[in-house]
Amino acid sequence: MTDTSQSHLSTPEQVRNRIEEAWNSDYQNRKESRIDLEYLAGRQWTKEEEAARQKTNRPMLTFNRLPTFVQQVVNDIRQNKPSISIVPEEDEDKEVSEVYEGLIRQIEYKSGGPAIYAAPAADAVSSSIGFLRVKTDYVDEKSFDQEILIEHIIDPGSVYFDPYATRQDKSDADYMVVLENVSEEEFKRRFPGKDLDDVDEYESDYDHVIDWAEGENVKIAEYYEVRTEKGWLVGTDEGVSEATRQVAQQWEQAGAQVREVEKRTIWRCVVSGSQMLEEWELLPGKHMPIVAVVGSEIRLGSETVRTSLIRFARDPQKLYNYWRSSAAEAIGQAPKSKWLVTQKMIAKFKKSWGVANSSPSPYLQYEPDENAPGAMPKQIAPPAPPSAMWQESQIVVEDMKAVTGIFDASLGAGGNETSGKAIMARQREGDTSNYHYTDNLEKAIRRVGEILIDLIPKIYDNERIVRLIGEDGSEKTVTINQQVEDEDGIVQTLNDLRKGKYHVRVSTGPSYMTKRIESADSMMSFIQAVPQAGNVIADLIAKNMDWPGADNIADRLRKMVPPELLEHEGGEPRSDAPMPAGGPEMTKQPAQDGQPPQSPLAPPQDEAQGKLQDAMMQIQLQTATAKAEYEQNRAALEELKVEAQALENERAMNNRQETEMETINGY
Fold this sequence. Notes:
Blueprint: H1 12-25, H2 27-40, H3 47-55, H4 66-79, E1 81-88, H5 94-111, H6 115-127, E2 129-138, E3 146-152, E4 159-161, E5 175-183, H7 184-190, E6 213-214, E7 217-236, E8 239-243, H8 245-253, E9 257-271, E10 276-283, E11 290-294, E12 296-300, E13 303-307, H9 314-333, E14 338-340, H10 343-346, H11 350-354, E15 378-380, H12 387-404, H13 420-433, H14 435-459, E16 464-469, E17 475-480, E18 482-485, E19 491-494, E20 502-509, H15 512-529, H16 534-543, H17 550-558, H18 605-665
Antiparallel strand pairs: 1-20, 2-3, 2-11, 4-5, 5-7, 6-7, 7-8, 7-9, 9-10, 12-13, 14-15, 16-17, 18-19
């Protein structure tokens, strides 16, 4: 909605000044982040170096090892998917909190799934910062209902923020900006009636300024601003409520508690380099909708220095390229192998001997010289290239591992470790040294959760059917904000999203399917230690198995468990318990001979026990078979991986040799 009284908001000129302020204050971090991405993309020689080497025809090789380190950290984050949990302040709001959780999973799913969080984390690892944005949109073109979406801002360099924001997620920023490049055609379509000729008329006093017009493209800025307004809270016996100043004064005179508070509002507009393109709009919610995911931050007084994983690996990478290029150059310029011969030995074969150093021919012919009895051509080896170049290449590789905190064990290379525990311990060292990337992502996701629980009751404010997603991926639909009348004619609201207060918790770890498999393995180990427990948890074990039909097996086994063990949390017996003939009164029979009462249709206890044991043995057999097949398949897969890696290493070695030979032949 648009507010008519906007005198308290920034003017277009003030908006542009703030954009320039944000650009200028964060210029050095942006410059270094850009260089990080250039190195990651393989552009590791400067233009001056390229020109100098091309002029003298010197080799300029690039062996980019940086993506391996980045992918190691990012893929570890991808494997440990984040999970948002909603915790109510009051126990009676637990059902509504479950609706919140299911709705948030649906929002995440429609926004792109877990990858929506991995993408900005990859930006933080690669270039020191990434961004998420929470936005709203209509459900479809034929609906007035809105929904919430989470968006990854693809270009982190397009986001500018308040330089006085100190929190990692930038939640305390008073303003944030997202710049976008659009074509002239797109500009005219989105902003009809706006003048395109003067978009770059704005002049700035800052050292580093934004070029609002670049060729046929135009920059537009989506600007968000935080404003605080005074409000009053009134506390009475019926609770706490908001009130105007006049009403609050009246309540205060009546003896009620009154407190002055500040209310945050978020405003949005769109500007170009010369004009306002979209007027100010008051957004729902009280939180800035843009969240930063930061790599590493170092505070130097009033200055904040951001670093990526590869920031300090750039110099070793550059040295690696230099030493490998120098080695190739040295080999190419080294004297060729010489042959010590007499003239008569090669007189008839001068042509083949003339190309001996470049020909792939497997043999050379010669004629014995009677003036040199018993002599034959002798090859004189050239001097070996300096070994220091190869040693320096190895040193800078170790430097790259040291500055990233990722060593051979984390990269899959074999070491001195022989036991699985030792290998895992070494791998965890690399995970621990870079865990702050995961931790910073969790902080950002927690902030996204706080924005969502603030927005959900404002956007999903009417009675409608929504889709919820459970932790196990199951889906169901519920009606929210549903008005119903009870027996006394009192109207109540079911699944009222405006009710209660909630907190956000974020955890990362294996997916639900992985947990399910691990749970089944733990249960099988448990019943091996306590066999009698298998009689009462057989259905739970089958339910966690990953076979086709496992759920059907679980349902059948569940019916064989004594009904008194399958009561709901409220103490009521299960609804699917078999009802004996004759109705409820026939459920139990008097005890006879000191034995417990038994249903007339229930099988004898020994028979039921035997069926349970047979079922458990069948499950154990199927589990053992499946596990054996799994181990065989995994072993075969590992063998294929080893063969594939060997082929890849051989291919890389051949390519490297071909490259070096081409370089050598060129000199």
